[in-house]
């Protein structure tokens, strides 16, 4: 027995030495990665960052005018800006910048071309010009209804990422001509990355961001306004004791009628000598804007009801009074040697007015069967004609009718048809698009830092990052989700081969590690423990106790307005309640007449339809659980029916 025990001890010792070598190898790789990031061990073969920028400038000078080139799709990239063109007559995606690291050579390339995509015809175009901004990633970009877009900041590095540079320049893009104009940014925000920009009236509003200082990372909590009438930046100053959000980057920053909503983000805090620990933020703040910028104030919003789990890398895309959130990552058990993460691919909506979160799930794709209508039911055109006559009567009664209103059969409903579209036209579009895209019944692969934007009620998701251990995997993909139907994910392309391979290898390695851990449980030899990082002076956030929100209901802030019914389209809602919305439009627009009032009434109807969309979807889900699928047929009470059935 003694001899057998000696052999067991020698075997354990051998395994311990093998594990120590493995840990040492991991530590060396991590040190190598840190040295690249913090520039502690600069490689002589790496090009000087100024020389790289000079080379890009020389290449750009060869373009004498705006050069437009048709492409099959954008080159793979991460951390690019993606926005929707503000031109109402044209549906278009705009993508600028980004970076890509070649996994074979570990060389990083930055982009500065402008990529456009038209969802209507599926055309991709690459636009380059002499006066384009220099290559960068992690910049902030936003479009204004006036037709211009603003770009600020971002980062650039040498090919081997030994040296970093943060831009502080500001550019305006004419979304019609695709021409860039550089602004004077001498008195603008300092250089940064990971910041966000949104709009309010005639302002672009910038918030947060970070700057890599080499040995550590500094985060910002300042706010800047760019006035499109004066083309100048101005920093918003707050009173000395006024509460403001913590410094952060990668947060959500969406517009409202009264200001901007800030949610979540990421920062780093001290965790020992020369160390920093990541901190995930999930607080929510309301920046209440005023024309007099000295009167702008922050207001912290209370958490209530359902909340998404903490995460970063998931900034919201704005869509008609709400934010749409996708994906993200949460890091836990962070130590000097290890970092475990969980990645998400869930979808949420945040209602700005009610300050509530709701989970969005895909429905089973299905063609709703048309229910046979009885002879006493009127056709859609007949209802439209009756609505138009009723609208004209209301306008005439209030002496607001134009002379040409009689000739217009469907001024209000025609606008609705263009924006909401007829169901038949939607089916035709989906049929023509099905030859180019694949419709998936599940949400895209988990990831963080995906670029998102909304085009014509569809959420577009481009790219993103997934990690296995210490290795990053860039996901080359593009998807869109119809936020009205939520009946599937249109996949334009996706490449998950490297991720699938990494998962297979990771499963094998995890099995081996589990065996080693089981063998080491009884080992009495001293081992160096991986010290867990603890944030210094990390005060707990003071949050009030929240009442549990049992019923998944969305408060109605305007109960006096008509409410859409389950499975009722925007078109049908307007035909049913157009007269009521016209009455409201007249009372709130005293200097508007005729067809313009009809347009106002439809705009109010559309806002109301989307305002209550999440609540109606809850009701639709309940009906589907009961087996009720498709359009809900309303009983025509004007015609008597027999009691026998």
Kindly summarize this structure in a few lines.
Residues 410-422 have a biased composition (Low complexity). By secondary structure, the protein is an alpha+beta fold.
Topology, pairings included?
Layout: H1 2-38, H2 49-60, E1 67-71, E2 81-84, E3 93-96, E4 99-101, E5 108-110, E6 114-118, E7 123-128, E8 140-143, E9 148-152, E10 155-157, E11 164-166, E12 170-174, E13 179-183, E14 196-200, E15 203-207, E16 210-212, E17 217-219, E18 223-227, E19 232-235, E20 252-255, E21 259-270, E22 276-288, E23 297-300, E24 317-318, E25 322-332, E26 340-351, E27 356-360, H3 380-397, H4 411-420, H5 423-433, E28 438-440, E29 451-455, E30 458-462, E31 465-468, E32 471-474, E33 476-482, E34 489-495, H6 497-520, H7 570-588, H8 594-611, H9 613-625
Antiparallel strand pairs: 1-7, 2-3, 3-6, 4-5, 6-7, 8-9, 9-12, 10-11, 12-13, 14-15, 15-18, 16-17, 18-19, 20-21, 21-22, 22-23, 24-25, 25-26, 26-27, 28-34, 29-30, 30-33, 31-32, 33-34
Helix pairs in contact: 3-7, 4-7, 4-8, 7-8
Structural account:
With 645 residues, this protein is of the alpha+beta class. Among the domains are: 46-141 and 150-183, no CATH class; 380-428 and 559-625, no CATH class. Helices cover 25% and strands 28% of the residues. The protein has 9 helices and 34 strands. Strands 1-7-6-3-2 form a 5-stranded antiparallel beta sheet, with no helix packed on it. Strands 28-34-33-30-29 form a 5-stranded antiparallel beta sheet, with no helix packed on it. Strands 8-9-12-13 form a 4-stranded antiparallel beta sheet, with no helix packed on it. The relative contact order is 0.09. The model is unreliable at 31-44, 367-376, 406-435, 524-528, 540-552 and 629-645 (pLDDT under 50).
């Amino acid at each position: 027995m003694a001899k057998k025990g000696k052999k067991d001890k020698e075997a354990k010792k051998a395994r311990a030495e093998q594990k120590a070598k493995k840990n040492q190898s991991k530590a060396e790789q991590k040190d190598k990665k840190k040295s690249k990031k913090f520039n502690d061990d600069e490689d002589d073969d790496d090009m000087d960052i100024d020389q790289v920028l000079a080379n890009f400038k020389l290449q750009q000078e060869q373009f004498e005018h705006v050069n437009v080139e048709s492409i099959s799709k954008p080159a793979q990239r991460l951390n690019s800006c993606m926005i929707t063109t503000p031109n109402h007559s044209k549906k278009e995606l705009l993508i600028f910048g980004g970076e890509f690291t070649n996994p074979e050579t570990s060389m990083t390339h930055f982009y500065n071309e402008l990529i456009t995509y038209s969802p209507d015809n599926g055309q991709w175009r690459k636009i380059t010009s002499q006066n384009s901004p220099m290559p960068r990633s992690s910049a902030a970009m936003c479009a204004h209804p006036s037709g211009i877009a603003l770009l600020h900041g971002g980062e650039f590095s040498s090919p081997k990422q030994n040296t970093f540079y943060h831009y502080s320049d500001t550019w305006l893009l004419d979304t019609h001509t695709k021409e860039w104009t550089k602004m004077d940014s001498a008195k603008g925000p300092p250089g940064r990355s990971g910041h966000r920009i949104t709009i309010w009236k005639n302002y672009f509003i910038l918030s947060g961001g970070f700057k890599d200082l080499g040995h550590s990372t500094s985060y910002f909590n300042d706010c800047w306004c760019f006035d499109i009438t004066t083309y100048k930046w101005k920093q918003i100053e707050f009173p000395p004791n006024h509460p403001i959000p913590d410094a952060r980057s990668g947060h959500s920053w969406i517009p409202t009628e009264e200001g901007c909503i800030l949610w979540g983000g990421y920062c780093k805090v001290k965790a020992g000598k020369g160390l920093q620990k990541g901190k995930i933020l999930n607080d929510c703040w309301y920046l209440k804007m005023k024309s007099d910028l000295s009167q702008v104030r922050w207001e912290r919003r209370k958490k209530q009801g359902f909340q998404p789990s903490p995460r970063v890398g998931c900034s919201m895309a704005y869509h008609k009074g709400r934010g749409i959130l996708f994906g993200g990552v949460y890091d836990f058990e962070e130590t000097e040697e290890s970092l475990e993460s969980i990645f998400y691919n869930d979808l949420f909506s945040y209602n700005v007015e009610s300050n509530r979160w709701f989970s969005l799930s895909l429905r089973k794709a299905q063609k709703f069967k048309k229910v046979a209508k009885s002879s006493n039911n009127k056709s859609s055109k007949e209802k439209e004609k009756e609505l138009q006559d009723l609208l004209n009567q209301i306008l005439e009664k209030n002496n607001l009718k134009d002379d040409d209103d009689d000739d217009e059969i469907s001024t209000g409903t025609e606008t609705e048809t263009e924006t909401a579209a007829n169901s038949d036209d939607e089916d035709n579009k989906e049929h023509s698009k099905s030859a180019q895209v694949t419709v998936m019944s599940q949400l895209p692969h988990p990831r963080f830092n995906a670029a998102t934007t909304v085009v014509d009620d569809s959420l577009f998701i481009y790219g993103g990052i997934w990690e296995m251990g210490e290795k990053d995997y860039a996901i080359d993909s593009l998807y869109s989700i119809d936020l009205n139907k939520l009946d599937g994910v249109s996949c334009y392309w996706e490449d998950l081969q490297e991720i699938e391979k990494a998962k297979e290898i990771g499963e094998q390695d995890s099995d081996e590690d589990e065996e080693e851990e089981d063998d080491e449980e009884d080992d009495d030899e001293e081992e160096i423990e991986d010290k867990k990082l603890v944030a210094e002076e990390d005060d707990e956030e003071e949050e009030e106790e929240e009442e549990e929100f049992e019923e998944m209901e969305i408060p109605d802030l305007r109960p006096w307005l008509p409410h859409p019914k389950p499975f009722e389209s925007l078109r049908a809602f307007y035909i049913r309640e157009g007269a009521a919305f016209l009455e409201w439009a007249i009372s709130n627009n005293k200097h508007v007449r005729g067809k313009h009032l009809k347009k106002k009434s439809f705009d109010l109807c559309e806002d109301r339809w989307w305002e209550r969309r999440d609540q109606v979807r809850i009701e639709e889900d309940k009906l589907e659980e009961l087996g009720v699928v498709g359009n809900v047929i309303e009983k025509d009470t004007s015609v008597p029916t027999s009691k026998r059935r």
